[in-house]
């Protein structure tokens, strides 16, 4: 029987019991794929991370990210939280870490209590989701969906979401309907079976947004802070303008009682529009698991 240490942190917040909780296993060498998935399901958080030795010694670690039902190629708050934990273990070199992940290399910068990650891929866009299909999933009318800038569309910088703008009032009353999600997933199959994450946002002003993310088919009824959705949103909004860069403060988790602040930015690069997201973390729990 071997013992594995874990810690939990609240991510994208400056206070305990805010933000998005994350479990981190800083030394997961020896755990099997099945054990990692079982531990993620046991913690029952939106994601759990497992830190392994890197394939390339020039990098800090290989990081595997699991939600309740499957492994993920990339995710935002797991990288921010894992970066924060490893930095406090002295594993950051000159305030930087490099994580090997399925979606690519994730660059992590640590400045005091703030951790910022660069998404591993440039913005890519997939098919549009019909407005009526999206609206039905979250209990809204089609008139609640704003299409002036873009229609609901699949967007990714390493992990795909359907991104849609709604009115501020509609964002507050949105409520996921599991049966409608299942029906929609049969009609809109671009993200694969049992996966239809919907990221809704509303504008406060030019630099401030509010957001909510629903993914009940993969076990997350609602997410308190979704960095891997905030990054494609920032990149998508910049791509619709002629500007070279943009910054957005995104509030999420308010309706859940777990307010989160995600500081997202995007810039034009040689290979397309790139995005980053950062925020604070707070330690909550630590313990061990024997398997």
Task: Describe the overall structure.
The chain is an alpha+beta fold and 291 residues long. The chain has 2 domains: 3-118 and 280-290, Diaminopimelate Epimerase, Chain A, domain 1, CATH 3.10.310; 124-279, Diaminopimelate Epimerase, Chain A, domain 1 (Roll). Helix content is 21%, strand content 42%. The protein has helices at 33-43, 76-88, 131-137, 168-173, 178-187, 227-239, and strands spanning 3-11, 20-25, 48-52, 61-66, 71-72, 96-101, 104-111, 114-118, 124-128, 145-146, 153-156, 160-166, 198-205, 208-215, 220-223, 245-252, 260-269, 272-290. The chain has an 8-stranded mixed β-barrel with strand order 1-2-3-4-6-7-8-18. The N and C termini lie close together (5 Å).
List keywords for this structure.
2 domains; eight-stranded mixed barrel; alpha+beta; 291 residues; Diaminopimelate Epimerase, Chain A, domain 1
Write the layout of secondary structure elements.
Blueprint: E1 3-11, E2 20-25, H1 33-43, E3 48-52, E4 61-66, E5 71-72, H2 76-88, E6 96-101, E7 104-111, E8 114-118, E9 124-128, H3 131-137, E10 145-146, E11 153-156, E12 160-166, H4 168-173, H5 178-187, E13 198-205, E14 208-215, E15 220-223, H6 227-239, E16 245-252, E17 260-269, E18 272-290
Helix pairs in contact: 3-5
Summarize the structure.
With 291 residues, the protein is an alpha+beta fold. Helices cover 21% and strands 42% of the residues.
């Amino acid at each position: 029987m071997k013992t594995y240490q874990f810690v939990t942190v609240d991510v994208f917040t400056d206070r305990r019991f805010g933000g998005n909780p994350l479990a981190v296993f800083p030394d997961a060498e020896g755990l099997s794929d099945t054990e990692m998935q079982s531990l993620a399901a046991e913690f029952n958080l939106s994601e759990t991370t497992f830190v392994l030795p890197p394939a390339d010694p020039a990098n800090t670690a290989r990081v595997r990210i699991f939600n309740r039902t499957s492994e993920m190629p990339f995710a935002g708050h797991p990288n921010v939280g894992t970066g924060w934990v490893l930095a406090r273990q002295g594993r950051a070199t000159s305030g930087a870490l490099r994580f090997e992940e399925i979606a690519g290399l994730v660059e992590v910068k640590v400045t005091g209590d703030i951790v910022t990650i660069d998404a591993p891929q440039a913005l890519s866009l997939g098919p549009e989701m019909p407005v009526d299909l999206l609206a039905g999933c979250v209990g809204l009318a089609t008139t609640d969906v704003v299409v002036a800038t873009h229609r609901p569309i699949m967007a990714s910088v390493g992990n795909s979401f359907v991104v849609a703008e709604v009115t501020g009032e509609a964002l507050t009353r949105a409520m996921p309907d599991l049966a409608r999600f299942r029906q929609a997933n049969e009609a809109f199959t671009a993200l694969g079976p049992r996966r239809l994450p919907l990221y809704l946002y509303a504008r406060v002003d030019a630099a401030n947004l509010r957001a909510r993310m629903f993914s009940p088919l993969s076990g997350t009824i609602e997410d308190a802070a979704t960095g891997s959705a905030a990054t494609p949103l920032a990149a998508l909004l910049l791509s619709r303008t002629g500007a070279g860069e943009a910054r957005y403060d995104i509030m999420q988790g308010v309706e859940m009682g777990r307010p989160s602040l995600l500081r997202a930015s995007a810039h034009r690069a040689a290979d397309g529009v790139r995005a980053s997201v950062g925020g604070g973390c707070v330690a909550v729990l630590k313990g061990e698991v024997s398997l």
